[in-house]
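[Q] Does anyone have a clean structure-token version of this?
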Amino acid sequence: MNVITGLAGIAAGLVSHLGTAGVLMGMILESAGVPLSSEVIVPLGVLASNDVQGAGAVVTAGTIGNVIGSWIGYGVGVAIRRGWRGGRWLRRPHWEAAERWFNRYGDRAVLLGRLVPTVRTYISFPAGAASMPAGRFTVYTAIGSLIWCAPLATTG
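[A] Here you go.
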């Protein structure tokens, strides 16, 4: 068993044993930086529910899970900012340039980042590190996550 098969197995196990709660938990983990696949979690959640109401519940659980997990990643980004700003790995001019870029494009980066595999898992870290306002971060995360989860649910 390789790592990818193992992670997909964990995602499938969460959903098959816990149903919609497993979708919620899996999506929290995925958005907090654990490389579980929403492309596995959401469709399997719909298959496990086996009805139209279940699809709506899975989309809702997936979106809420993404937001909660993203808050964790955002918090890690805030901690990174406090610990590394002006540190030896990232000099002040580089940090300030990155911060300016994120302040200019951050809303779009978070919204569109939620629609790109892999990027969606980690976009919360730079949002927190760049001190993106938490309310805006939450709104763009929720919109992007809903747009991501809905089509995945239709494949289930």
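[Q] Thanks! Anything notable?
[A] The chain has one domain: 3-155.
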